[in-house]
């Protein structure tokens, strides 16, 4: 009774192209999220200064 051969996977080194593509995609995704965060903060700051300029809000505490 002869034993059957078991196919073992051949371990290869990392695929450089695949790692570059994955790194680029992750980098662009993280950069896009960071950029959207900064656009949101810029929008909030611009809205604050617009309200301040219109006189609708004040940074001075009213004394009673």
TrEMBL record:
InterPro entries: COX5C. Its main location: mitochondrion. The keyword Mitochondrion applies. One of its GO terms (cellular component) is mitochondrial inner membrane. The keyword 4Fe-4S does not apply. Keywords: Membrane, Mitochondrion, Mitochondrion inner membrane, Transmembrane, Transmembrane helix. It comes from the Eukaryota. It is found in: Mitochondrion inner membrane. The chain crosses the membrane at residues 20-36. Belongs to the cytochrome c oxidase subunit 5C family. This protein is one of the nuclear-coded polypeptide chains of cytochrome c oxidase, the terminal oxidase in mitochondrial electron transport. This is Cytochrome c oxidase subunit 5C.
